[in-house]
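Reposting from the mailing list since nobody answered there.

I have sequence plus structure tokens for a pair of proteins and want to know whether others read the tokens the same way I do. The first protein:
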Amino acid sequence: MVLFDTLKRDIGRFRMPGVAASGRRLKRILPTRLYTRSVLIVIIPMILLQTVVAAVFMERHWRMVTERLSEGVTRDIAAIIEMIEQFPNDGDYSRVSRIAAEQLDLNILIEPPGPLPPPRPKPFFSILDSILADQIRNQIQRPFWIDTVGDSRLVEIRINLDDNVLRVFTRRSQTYASNTHIFLVWMAGTALALTAISVLFLRGQIRPILMLAQAAEAFGKGQRMPEFTPKGADEIRLAGSAFILMRERIERQIEQRTAMLSGVSHDLRTILTRFKLQLALAGDRPELHGMSEDVDAMQNMLEGYLAFAKGEAEEDVGELRLSELLEKVRADFQRKDKTMTFRIEGEDLISVRPNAFTRLVDNLAGNSERYADKLHVEARHTARWLTLIFDDNGPGVPPAAREDVFKPFFRLDEARNIDKSGTGLGLSIVRDIAHAHGGNVTLADSPLGGLRATVRVPA
């Protein structure tokens, strides 16, 4: 048993790489869209079925009919030869020619003896030549010559008799199943009609799935969703109804959270305003400076909480120039005697939600401005993606904490995304904005020695 298990494991280890490689190649070849796969599921079995039916028909029915027709014509020719031999004194053989034409539907000529023409080249598909030649060879057993190529409507047969040469002209339909193409045409035409009906039906079934996917994508990006009504099969309608209910629950939850935080922010702002008024009335006293800073910090925290809860989902997509946005960032760095450079590859004008995207850039640049002296931004705008790379020479973020810093209210001991008045929401808002645009934000080591933040969103 142990030997058997070892052998089976070795065989599996030997075969699996080839099987896995074949599976990967097959996945690359096969289409990925549901519509294309569904069409192939309908078409491929139909093609295979018709191929098998056509092959069987060609091999059995077509060949059998051709053999029967060729056998009948050969039998008639043998009868004509028998009559010629029975009436050798009939010089012009007019009676034989008349009987052949009227009774057998064959046109014959009896010529003086002479050599038969050389064999003509056979066509590529020579089922008639082979079957007719076999029948003449078996029934008549005389030298012969046949021509099935010269006149497409007629077949000429020459047979070398003892004293003369018999030339027989017969219609191709008498020796060959010439109407077989009708079956093939009907089969191909029916297949095309059924395929067209299947394609139209599949398109109607897949369209509701595409509409559901577009609605889900628009909702995931925080865009205004087009009017969506579940359609299609029962399962697709069920999925669409479930999506609508989920969207309503999420929107209701967001509205409740935003309303709650707005109310809390309004109430706390009133109290903070009183604090500020009391501090202003108390005058410029050194012992009150710390309290004034705490009040400002609480004000900033409230604004951050409210902005994080509200988000930018209600903003419409518009156009924004990267050069103008990055020039403002460079001006802020210059006011603080710090260096900021940028480079743009591709189109300067981008389609985003302007306020939200400006906030994303300001938050990332603000972190670098707070903890670094130098920042370089690389912007690459292609046909499909917009990529922004922020490289600075600050202290960076430890690799183990690069995902945690995107969590709301997460703080590092040596935080580079918050300061004494921070809330721990800067990078959380950045990632939320990137997700709302259908992209993402990742952190890595920068060539400048600090942190690299990469923003990648669909163009």
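The second protein, same order (residues first, tokens after):
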Amino acid sequence: MRFEQTGHVSMGCNVHDWMSVVVDTPFYAVTNLQGIVTFEHLPADDFKLVVWHPQLKMSDNQQVKPVHFPSANTMTITLQADFDSIPSQQSLDEFEFLEGY
């Protein structure tokens, strides 16, 4: 499926549909269980590093930092915000849009 816009997308999953995001860059990753991500083979350039989490209490659920690559140094990003609780399904009616699939 081709997505024409970036942002949150409901995918029709009654477990995780609040976690679906579309990005407009080939340079993205998901952290491992230790919160670590590695980017390799980035072109030399200025970038906007965006850390996104669905529960991050910041504008658009993200923290942004300008960075320049290449860099021989390891970069540590500390999130400067609180987190919301995990959304919970209150009733089956929340997913009535799935009827007929």
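Reply #1 (J.P.):
I read it the same way you do. The two ends are 17 Å apart (CA to CA).
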